[in-house]
Amino acid sequence: MSQETRHKKIILLIKEKGYLTIDELSAHFNVTPQTIRRDINALANEDKIRRHHGGASIDSSTTNVSYSTRQILQLSAKEAIAKSIADEIPNHASLFINIGTTTETVAKALLNHTGLQVITNNLNVASILRDKDDFTVIIAGGTVRSRDGGVIGEATLDFINQFRVDYGIIGISGVDPIDGSLLDYDYQEVRVAQSIINNSRTVFLAADNAKFGRNAVVRLGSITQVDRLFTDKKPPEPIKKLLKENEVTLTLCLPLH
Fold first, then answer.
1. Of 225, 232, 193, whose CA–CA distance to 210 is shortest?
2. Across the strands, what pairs with 51?
3. Within this chain, do residues 163 and 221 fall inside the same structural domain, yes or no?
4. Looking at the DSSP assignment, which residues form a beta bridge with residue 119?
5. Are residues 48 and 100 in the same domain?
6. Low-confidence residues in the chain, pLDDT < 70
């Protein structure tokens, strides 16, 4: 098989699956992992796929990759971000945690805290925190999304608006690398995230480096609305400029392994 043919087939496979590892592609094409890495690098440089540690995906502006795939994408970066955020949350604080695999990782990092009150529209976050006897975990009402346990809808909005908390911890699907727009796929999810921003005294945005330049169709707001950005690599220069101009604190979180 020629390299050109293999490249075309790699793109088709990743479009079908959403995400594939280097090992999976290597086995499928019966070539070495080094060959697949070169293929992925070449296709990523042509903006045909998105390169990740250990694999590759293809972005869509209208459909997110599957929940199970998002759980493993950028995992070491998510864990580093989660630890950094947890280190900034004092015991006995109140906080919102929204939908997303990154915020679920933050929830795990908070398990050593005491006396937290957590309001969430994420069933997975509630499940992670539910066994902590000294935590108060409040789950928002609304419509449950079967694909990822997110709770959305008008009832969710009404519920979130009843609270005013110390910290709002939000994840996001994408960040425009030029103007800093926060982007997501679900209009109803975006409305809930906006309410979390509006009802939090301090807003923490958890976004690994792969989120910068990732397309999504719905605009949540601007990166200038958050108080601190937690990420694992330096963001693009226009973003760094926006952060500085709007006094948003940038926290770089080194991967734990």
1. 232
2. 56
3. yes
4. 96, 138
5. no
6. 16-18, 59-74, 256-257
Residue 201 has a pLDDT of 98
Number of domains in the chain: 2
CA distance 226 to 209: 17
| Residue 200 to residue 205: CA distance in whole angstroms | 12
Bridge partners, residue 21, by sequence:
55
d(CA 247, CA 211): 21
Residue 206 contacts residue 102 (beta carbons within 8 Å): yes
Domain span at residue 35 reads: 3-58
Dihedral through CA 135, CA 76, CA 50, CA 245, nearest 10? 70
List the one residue out of 230, 240, 232 whose CA is nearest residue 89. 230
Give the Cα separation of 253 and 83 in Å (integer).
8
Where are any strands of DSSP class E within the chain?
A: 19-21, 50-52, 55-57, 94-97, 117-120, 136-139, 143-144, 151-152, 165-171, 174-175, 181-184, 200-206, 218-222, 228-231, 249-252
Here the CATH number for the domain that contains residue 54 is: 1.10.10.10
pLDDT value at residue 102: 92
- CB burial readout 82-104, b (16+ within 10 A) else e: bbbbbeebeeebbbbbbbbbbbb
How far is 175 from 154, CA to CA, in rounded Å?
25
